[in-house]
């Protein structure tokens, strides 16, 4: 799960990571009176959306006076934002963070990620912060520092010193930085994060070290031991995705018009690929899980049909432990409960497939059967046209 | 021969008496696997499915002589069970559990690594995987036994149902499998593609290998390097997730394109360059293997 900037900064604060003073957070529909704008200013007004490139899209503004800060906040709330990371879609700004602004003398990039190959947390840092680390990795890979960290020991003192020297940390901020880096790693490990990023970490004109932005991605598998994080809303998931999650179905909405119901994540991915190859586009990724019973199948149909774009439904189930005849009975049962007014294509394979196909054929349901995934995909694409 | 499991494999099951453990242990036993006992703390002394239950893995291994462990323990406790099985001395640990925190697996990998450096030989398969099966000899996992057939094709995959799909196509072609290994869909896992390919390369029964990858991480690219350098047996690949949107986890915790890494294109390109056959259409993998295995005698002669 991805945290918004201010949610990430709340976690930072718990770990003593230095931050700018916050004036407040305003949600859509609230008024801006709650902002505590009692300092001399200026303030920075930031749209809380889960996408990089906010600055260029008008989601980060500087306000010189309290009145301006309130005005900018009001304007930003409800704004539709498209950045290079939103894939052409617009995100609605539902929350705005207002922090005290600071002048910036230097920008540094630092993050902690999981190195899948090395199986350990790894610090990625660069003395040249502020820009996209991916662009920097392409153009100047030598400017990127990678430092693997032991999961049990955390960042060792000599590693922290080494990092500080490599980043040319000024003497004044040296100890502050090594403490910060150790805490960032501690946060990554203790909070079960899969990414913690500070971009930029700045040194201000008067020589203060400040984390200006925050990005935290948490490991969903570990939410059972982080009740505070588990209670937060998932800002990335759509309403249908949230609903699916609640009933134990893995659903991701996509742009196409062919609804897909598949058992297993890998097969679900391969089904989307096959639909594309057959000339169509899937409306969703949906994994009904290994033990697809009548209940799960009924719920999965309900979820798929909530998307108004869907013009045909492709069911691709490989019956393993759960036998095909049971699955076929499930499909029949489910389609009795809910009216499926659009073409339905079913491909069953695996254990008891003959019996399963017979049940579907005799059911009187208007559906097309297919022998292979390829045939099913072609039929679904034709039906959706 | 086969890899990881054979007729002599003696299995203990962690989480034996739970619903999942019971159901799948029964299925494995019906297939002919030798499950010699189970581990459920607090239920030691009981009998379940006709075999003894032990409080600890150490006691189970000491009493039964088990050399492999199958784990169905729920996510919060599964990492601990893996380490308990390793400590008790089994050589192969297969963890089915889905949803283990990544940081737990990082710790497990570190400890298993230390054990192996100290001279122990422990192989972990999974977690979040369907398990391992050597057709006709031993099934340790949740895969449907019925779709398999003894033969010469080794299969290794990051996905459960995609493995079944590949197995089924191979069986439908009149061929069979030497061993089928599900390495799982998590970002940090035990055995990886290269480990499995090494075993298949060394295994006499295996004549060709099917490798089913997916987006995320760099395991397929690593496999490509190994294939190019060391593999003399033909490798047939499919990589799922060509159309997956970037930045979203596609069901498996490890199936995600992060920035420029883990893309479908990079994996396919690396595998093709390494000389592996990559099918774009999943429905064609069985046919591709069948076609590739026929002129086998010829290529062997040519290589000499």
Explain what you see:
The complex is a heterodimer of chains A (385) and B (304). In chain A, strand 8 (104-115) and strand 9 (120-126) form a beta hairpin. In chain A, helix 10 (324-337) packs parallel to helix 11. Chain A folds into three domains: 1-20 and 103-236, ATP-grasp fold, B domain (D-amino Acid Aminotransferase, Chain A, domain 1); 21-101, 2-Layer Sandwich (Dna Ligase, domain 1); 239-384, Rossmann fold (3-Layer(aba) Sandwich). Chain A contains twelve helices and 19 strands. Chain A is elongated, with a radius of gyration of 26 Å. In chain A, the strands form five sheets. In chain A, strands 1, 8, 9, 10, 11, 12 and 13 form a seven-stranded antiparallel sheet that branches. A four-stranded antiparallel sheet of chain A has the order 2-7-3-4, with helices on one face. Chain A has helices at 5-14, 66-76, 133-139, 157-166, 174-190, 227-230, 239-246, 265-277, 294-305, 324-337, 353-362, 373-384; strands at 2-3, 22-27, 43-47, 60-63, 80-81, 91-92, 95-100, 104-115, 120-126, 145-148, 193-204, 209-211, 215-218, 250-253, 258-262, 284-287, 312-319, 344-350, 367-370. Chain B has a seven-stranded mixed sheet, with helices on both faces. In chain B, helix 2 (57-64) crosses helix 3 (75-88), helix 5 (160-172) packs across helix 9 and helix 6 (193-202) packs parallel to helix 7. Classes of the chains: A alpha+beta (385), B alpha/beta (304).
CATH class of the largest domain in chain A: Alpha Beta
**Apparent shape of chain A:** elongated
Largest interface: A-B, 55 and 62 residues
CATH topology of the largest domain in chain B: Rossmann fold
Percent helix range of chain B: 25-40%
Largest sheet of chain B: 7 strands, mixed
Number of helices of chain A: 12
How far apart the termini of chain B lie comes to 24 Å
* Alpha-beta content class of chain A: alpha+beta
> Any idea what the CATH architecture of the largest domain in chain B is?
3-Layer(aba) Sandwich
- CATH fold name of the largest domain in chain A, please? D-amino Acid Aminotransferase, Chain A, domain 1
Principal-axis shape of chain B equals globular
Indicate the low-confidence ranges of chain A by residue numbers: none
Overall radius of gyration of chain A: 26 Å
CATH superfamily of the largest domain in chain A: ATP-grasp fold, B domain
Beta strand count of chain A: 19
**CATH superfamily annotation of the largest domain in chain B:** Succinyl-CoA synthetase domains
The major pleated sheet of chain A works out as:
7 strands, antiparallel
């Amino acid at each position: 799960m991805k945290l918004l900037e201010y949610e990430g900064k709340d976690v930072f604060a718990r770990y003593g990571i230095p931050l700018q003073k916050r004036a407040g957070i305003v949600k859509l529909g609230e008024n801006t009176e709650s902002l505590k704008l009692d300092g001399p200013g200026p303030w920075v007004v930031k749209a809380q959306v889960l996408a990089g490139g906010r600055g260029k899209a008008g989601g980060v503004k500087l306000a010189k006076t309290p009145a301006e800060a309130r005005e900018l906040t009001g304007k930003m709330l409800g704004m539709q934002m498209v950045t290079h990371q939103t894939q052409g879609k617009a995100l609605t700004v539902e929350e705005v963070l207002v922090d005290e602004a600071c002048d910036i003398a230097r920008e540094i990039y630092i993050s902690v990620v999981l190195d899948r190959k090395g199986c350990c947390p790894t610090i990625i840092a660069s003395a040249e912060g502020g820009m996209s680390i991916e662009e920097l990795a392409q153009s100047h890979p030598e400017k990127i520092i990678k430092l693997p960290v032991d999961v049990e020991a955390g960042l060792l003192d000599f590693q922290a010193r080494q990092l500080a020297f490599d980043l040319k940390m000024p003497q004044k901020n040296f100890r502050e930085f090594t403490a910060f880096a150790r805490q960032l790693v501690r946060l990554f490990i203790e909070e079960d994060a899969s990414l913690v990023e500070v971009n930029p970490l700045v040194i201000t004109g008067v020589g203060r070290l400040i984390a200006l932005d925050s990005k935290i991605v948490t490991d969903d598998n570990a939410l059972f031991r982080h009740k505070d994080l588990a209670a937060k809303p998932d800002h990335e998931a759509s309403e249908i995705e949230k609903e699916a999650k609640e009933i134990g179905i893995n659903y991701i909405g996509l742009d196409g018009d062919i609804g897909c119901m598949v058992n297993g994540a890998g097969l679900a991915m391969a089904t989307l690929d096959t639909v594309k190859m057959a000339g169509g586009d899937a409306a969703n990724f949906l994994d009904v899980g290994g033990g697809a019973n009548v209940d799960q199948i009924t719920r999965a149909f309900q979820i798929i049909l909530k998307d108004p774009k869907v013009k045909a439904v492709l069911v691709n189930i490989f019956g393993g432990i759960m036998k095909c005849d049971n699955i076929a009975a499930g499909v029949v049962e489910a389609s009795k409960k809910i009216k499926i007014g659009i073409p339905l294509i079913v491909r069953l394979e695996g254990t008891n497939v003959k019996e399963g196909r017979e049940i579907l054929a005799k059911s009187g349901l208007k559906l097309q059967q297919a022998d292979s995934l390829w045939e099913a995909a072609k039929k679904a694409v034709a039906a959706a046209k | 021969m086969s890899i990881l499991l054979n007729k002599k494999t003696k299995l203990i099951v962690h989480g034996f008496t739970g619903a999942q453990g019971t159901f799948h242990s029964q299925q494995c036993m019906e297939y002919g696997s030798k499950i010699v006992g189970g581990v459920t703390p607090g239920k030691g002394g009981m009998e379940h499915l006709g075999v003894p239950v032990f409080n600890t893995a150490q006691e189970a291994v000491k009493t039964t002589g088990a050399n492999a462990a199958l784990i169905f323990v729920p996510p919060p406790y599964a990492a601990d069970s893996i380490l308990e099985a390793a400590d008790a001395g089994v050589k192969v640990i297969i963890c089915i559990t889905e949803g283990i925190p990544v940081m737990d697996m990082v710790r497990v990998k570190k400890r298993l690594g230390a054990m192996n450096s100290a001279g122990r030989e422990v192989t972990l398969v999974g977690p979040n995987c369907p398990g391992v099966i050597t057709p006709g000899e031993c099934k340790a996992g949740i895969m449907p036994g019925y779709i398999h057939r003894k033969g010469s094709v080794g299969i290794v995959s990051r996905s459960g149902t995609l493995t079944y799909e590949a197995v089924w196509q191979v069986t439908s072609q009149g061929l069979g499998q030497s061993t089928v290994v599900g390495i799982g869909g998590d970002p940090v896992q035990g055995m990886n593609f290269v480990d499995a390919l090494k075993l298949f390369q060394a295994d006499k029964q295996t004549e060709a290998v099917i490798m089913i990858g997916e987006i995320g991480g760099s395991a397929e690219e690593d496999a490509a390097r190994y294939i190019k350098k060391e593999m003399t047996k033909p490798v047939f690949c499919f990589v799922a997730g060509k159309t997956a949107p970037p930045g979203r986890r596609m069901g498996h915790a490890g199936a995600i394109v992060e920035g420029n890494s883990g893309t479908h294109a990079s994996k396919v390109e690396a595998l093709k360059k390494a000389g592996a056959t990559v099918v774009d259409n999943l429905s064609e993998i069985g046919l591709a293997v069948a076609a590739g295995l026929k002129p086998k005698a010829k290529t062997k002669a040519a290589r000499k």
